[in-house]
Design brief:
By secondary structure, the protein is α/β, with parallel strands linked by helices. The protein is built from 13 helices and 20 strands. A six-stranded parallel beta sheet has the order 2-1-3-4-5-6, with helices on both faces. Helix 8 runs parallel beside helix 9 (245-253) and helix 12 (314-327) packs parallel to helix 13. The radius of gyration is 22 Å and the shape is globular. The chain binds S-adenosylmethionine (SAM) and iron/sulfur cluster. Residues 158, 160-162, 165, 167-168, 202-203, 239 line the site of iron/sulfur cluster.
Length: 438
Amino acid sequence: MQQKKVHIMTFGCQMNVSDSEKIVALLRTIDYESVPSIAEADLVIVNTCSVRAKAEERIYGILLTMKGELKRRPNLLIGVGGCVAQQEGARLLQKIPHLSFVFGTHNLHLLPQMVRQAEAGKRTSETAFIDDDSRFDLFPDYDGGSGITRAVTIMQGCDNYCSYCIVPYVRGREVSRQKADILEEIRKAAAAGVKEVTLLGQNVNSYGTRGGGGADFAGLIRDVAKIAGIKRIRFMTSHPKDMSAPLMECYADVEKLCSHIHLPVQSGSNRILELMNRGYTRSAYIAKIEQLKSIRPDILVTSDIIVGFPGETDEDFQESLSLMSEVGYADTYSFVYSPRPETKAATLPDTTSKVEKSERLKRLFALQKSLTRSLQSDYVGRCLEVLVEGVGKKEGQIYGRTSGNRTVNFSGSSALIGTLQRPRIIKNLQNSLLGELE
Ligand code: SAM
Ligand code: SF4
C-alpha cells in the first residue's frame, strides 16, 4: 500500500508536544509518515489547547480556514485532538461538518482505527476517560528518535482544581506512570544519544500519589540520575504546595539535577491565592524559594502569573509585582485571566476592565524585562556550562542551554553537539546570551 502523509499542528503546552510525538508513532503503525506542510498531507491532525479562550478561538479559526483547502482537495481528512476535543467531543463534529474525527486526551491509542474509519467515510468521536495507569500502556514504546533533549511523561491529569483552570476537566484525574517504565524509556533514550531529560506532567512533584507503584518524585530523580549517558535532569511543572523536603534535598547532592525550577506562583496576594485555591500563602512560597536558594545558590526560578483574576485590586496586583522583585525571577510567563467553562472562578464577579488588565500585563512584562536584564548581565565575563543542542541560526554558531536554562549562542563546530562546553559569556542579548569558547 502507498505510504500516506500526516501533518500535525500542535498548540499549547509541552504535554501536547509530547502527545503529538506519540501520535506520529501511532500513525506510523498504519503507514502514515509525518510531513511539515498541509499541502503535502492526506491527513491533518490539530492537537488543541483550551487553557485560555484565545487559544480555543484560534483553533476554530484554523479549522474554518481548512474549508478552502478541502474545496481544492475533497479527500483531505481532518482530525482534532487535545483539550478542545476533550471539552467539546461529538459537538465538534456537529459544529464543523468538514471534520472527520475527534479524539480526547485519553484516546490517542484509538487513532489508528479512527483514521481507518475516516478513510472509509465514517465520522467518529472518542473522548472517554481511562481512569488508571493502564492508559500509559496503550502507547507505542520509545522509538529512538533523534535529539539531545527529551521530555518524558511521568504522569497525566491533575487533581488540584485551581479555581481558574480547565486542565482537571480536560485531562482527567492525576495518575502516575510506573517508575520501572519511566526508567526503561530513559535508558533507551540515553542509548539513542539523549543527554538531557525533562520529567513531564501537570504537577510532577506529587508524582506517586496515585499510581506509580509506590514511588515518590525525589526517589525517581535519584534513580534517573543513575542512568549512564544522562547528563542533565529537569522537570516541569511543579506545584509550590508539593515542594517536599526530600525533593529540596535532591538539589544538595544530585549534581545532574539542573539549577532551574519553574515554580508557578500565579499571584503575590494571599487573598487572590486563596480565591485561586492554590493551597499556599505568599510567605510559604517565598520561604520555599529561600530554602532552595540556600541549598543551590545559583538556582534560577521562573514562574507563571495571572493578572486580572476576578476581584484583583490594584493592591493585589502590586503584591504580584513586589513578589516578582523579591524572588528575582529569571522569567515569568504571564497571562490575562480568561474565564473557562466549568471552573469555579468563571462564576465570580469580575469588575476589572479589559484596558486595566492589559495595562497590568504591560507593567508585569516591563518589570520582568528589567529583572532578566540585570540577572543576565551578571553572567557577562563568566564561563557557564552549556549542553550543546544544535547549530545556531547564524552561520558557524552552535547553541545550548545553561543549567539555569538560559540559551547561549557561540561559535563552534557541530561536532560539539551533545557535549558540555564552558563558553565565556561576552554579551547579554536579553532573550539569550552570546558566548565564546576560549
Ligand atoms: N500545572 C501547571 C501549574 O500548576 O502551574 C500549569 C498548567 S497551566 C496549563 C499553565 C499556566 O496557564 C498556569 O500556570 C496558569 O498561569 C495559566 N492559566 C491556566 N488557566 C488560566 C486561565 N483560565 N486564564 C489565564 N491563565 C491561565
Ligand atoms: Fe491547572 Fe492548577 Fe492543575 Fe496546574 S495545578 S494544571 S494550574 S489545576
